[in-house]
Design brief:
Elements (H helix, E strand, L loop, with lengths): L1 H33 L11 H30 L3 H23 L8 H18 L1
Helix pairs in contact: 1-2, 1-4, 2-3, 2-4, 3-4
């Protein structure tokens, strides 16, 4: 379980922050590109959009990091079982949210599962 604790710290401190930063910047750029150039329209500004998406995605990444840690406890040491326990519920949740929201943009969250799975695989291989 020591490797899982190190992985949790890495996911919480570095990976979640970087992915949230990336999602926040993407949302701010999309808002700026989709926004109107009319000076009479007062929008929330890029900083507000960035902070909103950064904080929301950071919260989601913290939950995903904790689920990754829990999958180590549930599935044990084998990588395949751990990946299945981590990814199947995540994919089902993302697809359900995309279906009910009616937006395919939410499917970009699969990128987060991919990154966390790669880190999980690398850390599991190192621990052997």
């Amino acid at each position: 379980m020591e490797y899982a604790k190190k992985e949790l710290l890495l996911n919480l401190c570095v990976v979640s922050f970087v992915l949230s930063l990336l999602y926040g910047l993407t949302a701010a750029c999309m808002d700026r590109l989709a926004g109107s150039d009319a000076s009479y329209i007062s929008g929330p500004g890029g900083a507000a959009v960035f902070m909103l998406f950064f904080l929301l995605s950071y919260l989601v990444h913290i939950i995903i990091s904790l689920w990754s840690y829990a999958s180590a406890a549930i599935a044990g040491r084998p990588l395949f079982r751990r990946l299945v326990v981590f990814n199947v519920p995540g994919l089902l949740l993302i697809c359900a949210i995309a279906f009910f929201a009616g937006s395919a943009v939410i499917l970009a969250a699969v990128f987060t599962l991919l990154i966390f799975s790669i880190i999980m695989a690398v850390n599991t291989r190192k621990a052997r």
